[in-house]
Write a structure and sequence with these properties.
The protein is an all-alpha fold.
């Protein structure tokens, strides 16, 4: 049996979801699988630790907790104002910031369009200069020597 199937059966065993036939099959496969036995022992120890720490709570504990929450909730609603000056200030500042952001975003989009237009103009001009440069005839340079150079050594 595969390791995943063994682990699944062990987990279902501790959740009390196995039938009697599956339990027999699980313990038969654990007799052959060392790692499966170790996993089973680990979960058994964990289950035992959980059972040792389990405490019984009074039956009316839930009711007491819910009643105390209801009382606190009504007190909180009565005592506080929903519109406080710091909250109004924060809302006003956030609305103003949103308006500024939207204005700057539209300006930024305009600048971006202008930059793209200028870049296309510059690219067109570069192509035109390249075409003109390639259209010029090749220049030839010829030099003439009009005077003779005489080198005399000095001793």
């Amino acid at each position: 049996m595969s390791k995943e199937k063994t682990r699944e059966l062990i987990n279902r065993y501790f959740d009390a979801e196995l039938s009697k036939e599956e339990e027999i099959f699980l313990f038969a496969s654990l007799s052959e699988d060392e790692k499966g036995r170790e996993y089973f022992k680990t979960l058994a120890a964990l289950n035992e630790a959980i059972n040792r720490t389990h405490e019984e709570f009074p039956e009316n504990l839930d009711d007491k907790i819910l009643q105390s929450l209801a009382e606190r909730k009504t007190e909180a609603v009565k005592g506080k104002s929903f519109v406080s000056p710091p909250a109004l200030f924060a809302y006003a500042v956030s609305v103003i910031l949103i308006i500024f952001i939207l204005m700057f975003k539209s300006d930024l989009n305009n600048y971006k369009k202008e930059l793209q237009a200028q870049a296309s103009v510059v690219n067109r001009q570069n192509k035109m200069i390249e075409l003109l440069f390639n259209a010029l005839p090749a220049a030839t340079v010829q030099a003439e020597r009009k005077t003779q150079i005489v080198v005399t050594p000095q001793l």
